[in-house]
User: Fold this.
Amino acid sequence: MTKVSVILPNYNHEKYLEERIESILKQTFQNFEIIILDDCSKDKSLEIIKSYKDNLKIIEVLINKVNSGSTFRQWQKGLNLANGKYIWIAESDDFAEYTFLEKTVDYLDNHSDSHVVGVDSNLVDSEGLILQKGYGHLCYNLENTSELNGQDFFLTHMTIGNSFSNASAVLFRKEVINFDLSVLANYKLCGDWIFWSLIALKGNVGIIPECLSNFRQHPKSVRNTINLIEEKEEIIRALDFILHLAKLNDPFKQQVYNSYFNQFRNNGFEYLYLRNAMHDPTIWQKKWKYLKYQFLKKLMNILS
Assistant:
């Protein structure tokens, strides 16, 4: 039986696609299949994909004739085709360390109550050079591999933002995807925030505090091409969905809501400007981490 299905959605990432595919094929754990989904790329992505046509690891290549408008529609297609017990969504502009599957598969094999496991990521530039070791607050203050209660993880890590902000850094069990994914198609950026939240609420969450994935920052990424107003509106819609999942009473929800939006209204556009202007990534990463930390403190005060 195939252990892992690797879903590789691509759109106009000819510059990074070969490195991504090679970082999958060279994994130390080899019981996997690859499903490549191209969303009507206009560059030379198809030439690169065709160069791997004889590779037996690649079981399916789907080329859209019309762009789907959302990478999350591609996720759904890949999940429908997947035969593996575990799923790895390997975004085409990222690349992995060769032990990514070895360590994440081993974790899920030995932690039956965990439905998902995430690793830390390096933030890299368009050339693959490391800008920052360790990304986001998923592994904050963790030195060893940890198993967290999914409900607690959701409240402390997902209601303040997407702790699994690099989809390529996550492995999950296919069997837990028994919910409707159509809602994700309404998002360009935040669908994964909702996706990981739904999974976290179904069981425990594993965290491996090692940088086994490389999260690429470049001007052509979806996040760096979307209109800032559109991005802010999407985050607000996603947060409303996330807080609805939490089934919080109205006063509690309003406190969290107000706390988040006050910080986002006051600081969000400065953060978004810094990021989209591609200034020193360490500056905006530290600033955004601080803002999330402050919000987490407020959230914990409300919970206590």
In short: Residues 269-281 have pLDDT under 50 and may be disordered. The longest strand covers residues 204-216.
